[in-house]
Amino acid sequence: MDYLFTEEQKMIKDLARKISEEKVKPVRAELDETGTFPWELMKEFGKADLCGLYIPEKFGGFGGGCLEFCLATEEVSRICGGVGVTFAASALGAFPILMFGTEEQKMKYLPDIASGKKLAAFGLTEANAGSDAGGIQTTAKKDGDYFILNGTKQWITNGGEAETYTVIAMTDKSKGTRGATAFILEKGMKGFDFGKKENKMGIRCSATRELVFQDCKVHKSQILGKEGMGFIVAMKTLDRTRPGIGAQAVGIAQGALDEALAYSKTRIQFGKPISSFQGVQHMFADMATQVEAARALVYATARTVDTGTADISRDSAMCKLFASDVAMKVTTDAVQILAGYGYMKEYPVEKMMRDAKITQIYEGTNQIQRNVIALGLIKELAAKK
Ligand code: COS
């Protein structure tokens, strides 16, 4: 399908594919097995100027947008979902600064993220505040020109490895979601520590850790936007980064389809390659159609995000929901096509199936995406009346 990319967008896609094929593919199984964080690979992406695709040139980035970011994320995830999310989660940490940061904050933090020298991360989730993001308990108590943070963030991607963190904490619990504030925190600040790296089912090389705050003193100049705007910062960020999860899901699904197709030509049963059986061909037809539909939705949503005009919550939720369900279905079918071999670690499809699962969960479960979509539909209807 022709998505009418510019020459620059084609170049980004090709470059991300080349690095992923040459550098990520040879090490993905070992990174998965050992749960090793892919620092060397992040440096490669930095050297190739892929880390700041969505960051304006004046802050050291490429000056593209959500689409360029999605193209690269898809290509990296086609080879490894764990490396893909490590790459993408830095954008999740950087987007709040990009959207709500002062000129000074942007100048201070974005160039190092754009160059790949530093990674960023986003701290919203807590043990008792997942889908119910408004239920966060981490507090930031005012103390003159400072805020004192106490609490624990859970399952933070790039936790411990990133240098720059956007953290949402309650500055006034009595105000509910309007009492949350977003802060930029730096690794190494007194009172800011990390929990152990979580041992996960998939995306195993990515780092998932707790962020622990114990009387962590943060100057008011580290606030993003205004005091009390933290929930809006978080929600608007997720609206812009969910297409990235869609792109990750499309990449994982395409990777699994590629593997299953290649295998089906070499696997001989009943005297013929299994690719010649109609039952298998129909599975491929469905898988390819689903991947292409998900890809089209991700690119269309990313383009809408980049126009900056529309209310994107609904579209963004749709593309994350659809693409992640496709990833789960297609990777499961790929394992089925490889059958016994698909279940073994010698082939990459079992890893792809494990990696796909989280795309239905993080950045808002698919049940929450359905709530957001339904709310969008109801709002649209009300606006028409
Ligand atoms: N953009 C701007 N503002 C938004 C918004 C968005 N996308 N979504 C909600 N808001 C605003 C609402 O308009 C409301 O504002 P007012 O106080 O002015 O009325 C406020 O935020 C609270 O919204 P709401 O009442 O809908 O909040 P809920 O607590 O019911 O939250 C959702 C519901 C589904 C939006 C939220 O809990 C959610 O997205 N959960 C998933 C969180 C998630 O993705 N976690 C993963 C973490 S990162 S890996």
Report the helical percentage.
Answer: 40-55%
- Biggest β-sheet description: 4 strands, mixed
Q: Radius of gyration, Cα only, in angstroms?
A: 21 Å
Topology order in helix (H) and strand (E) letters: HHHHHHEEEEEEEEHEEHHHH
Strand order of the largest sheet: 1-4-5-8
Domain module tally = 3
Structural class: alpha+beta
Count of DSSP E strands?
10
Question: How far is the first residue's CA from the last residue's CA?
Answer: 38 Å
Name of the level-1 CATH class of the largest domain? Mainly Alpha
Question: In CATH terms, what is the architecture of the largest domain?
Answer: Up-down Bundle
Low-confidence stretches: none
Number of helical segments?
Answer: 11
Using the alpha-carbon principal axes, give the shape: globular
CATH superfamily of the largest domain: Butyryl-CoA Dehydrogenase, subunit A, domain 3
CATH topology category name of the largest domain:
Butyryl-CoA Dehydrogenase, subunit A, domain 3
Mean pLDDT level? 97
Which ligands occur here? coenzyme a persulfide
Q: What is the strand content?
A: 5-15%
Note down, in words, how this protein is organized.
- There is one protein chain.
- The chain is of the alpha+beta class and 385 residues long.
- It has three domains: 7-118, Acyl-CoA dehydrogenase/oxidase, N-terminal domain (Butyryl-Coa Dehydrogenase, subunit A, domain 1); 121-230, Butyryl-CoA Dehydrogenase, subunit A, domain 2 (Beta Barrel), CATH 2.40.110.10; 237-380, Butyryl-CoA Dehydrogenase, subunit A, domain 3.
- Helix content is 54%, strand content 15%.
- The protein has helices at 7-24, 28-34, 39-47, 66-79, 81-100, 103-115, 230-266, 278-307, 313-342, 349-357, 366-384; strands at 120-123, 139-143, 146-157, 164-170, 180-186, 192-194, 208-219, 223-224, 268-269, 272-273.
- The strands form three sheets. The chain has a four-stranded mixed beta sheet. Strands 2-3-7-6 form a four-stranded antiparallel beta sheet, with helices on one face. It has a two-stranded antiparallel ribbon with strand order 9-10.
- Helix 4 (66-79) packs across helix 7 (230-266) and helix 4 packs antiparallel against helix 8 (278-307).
- The structure holds coenzyme a persulfide (COS).
- Coenzyme a persulfide binds at residues 124-125, 131-134, 177-178, 231-232, 235-236, 238-239, 313, 362-364, 368, 371-372.
